[in-house]
Amino acid sequence: MKVVCAWCQRTIRNGDAEGEGVSHGMCPECSKTFLRESLVDQGNLSLDELLDRFPFPVLAVDGDVVVLGANRSAAAALGKPVDALIRRRGGVAIECVNAATAEGCGATPHCAGCQLRTAVTATFTDGQPRYSVLSTHSVGPKGASHELRIRCSAVKLGKLVVVSIEGLNEA
After folding, report:
1. For residue 60, what are the β-bridge partners?
2. How far is CA 63 from CA 1, 15, 20, 70, 140, in A?
3. What are the backbone dihedrals phi and psi of residue 119, each rounded to the nearest 5 degrees, phi first?
4. d(CA 79, CA 13)
């Protein structure tokens, strides 16, 4: 799948074996420009207000995948109010069945294979963006769960990782 910056239309990554079509993300240059201009031009925006300026669903998370900010598009995509996402680990925000266990999000044996968690923590650690990452999760209440595929990109901005949600599909 080819990945194109939603802002400047530059190709971020050419197609590969993952599938045909085009997905959108934000290139590192536009991410830096967007954040700098938003902070300088708007002064005292909250993180959520800043994130609401993105035209697609985004979450701001820390290195342990705890949601620190979300825009209204992300809340709508996940079917929750913004307040229900904040200060929750990513698995809790998407209702991953593993996050509901006693170990919690990030601590079960299944979490080691979570591509979403891997992309965010790696981006937080090395600062390199990850584009069009596909991650599959069992979500929902115990006994009534279903598979959810999430396609996302992760870009580090300061002490946060901004995760753009490019697609949510039930498997």
Report:
1. 69, 162
2. 27, 29, 31, 16, 25
3. -65, -45
4. 30
Residue-level length of the chain: 171
Q: List, in sequence order, every beta strand (DSSP E) within the chain.
A: 2-5, 11-13, 22-25, 58-61, 67-70, 130-139, 146-157, 160-170
The Cα 118–Cα 120 span in angstroms is 6
Choose between 161 and 1: higher pLDDT. Answer: 161
Q: How far apart are the first and last CA of the chain?
A: 18
Task: Write the DSSP symbol of residue 102.
Answer: S
With a pLDDT cut of 90, the percent of the chain lying above it is 43
Q: What is the pLDDT of residues 102-140, one digit of tens each?
A: 998 889 888 889 999 999 999 999 999 999 899 998 898
The torsion angles phi and psi of 142, rounded to 5 degrees, stand at -55, 135
- Quick one: tokens of 91? 């698995």
What is the token pair recorded at 140? 């929902």
Rounded to two decimals, what is the model's pTM? 0.75
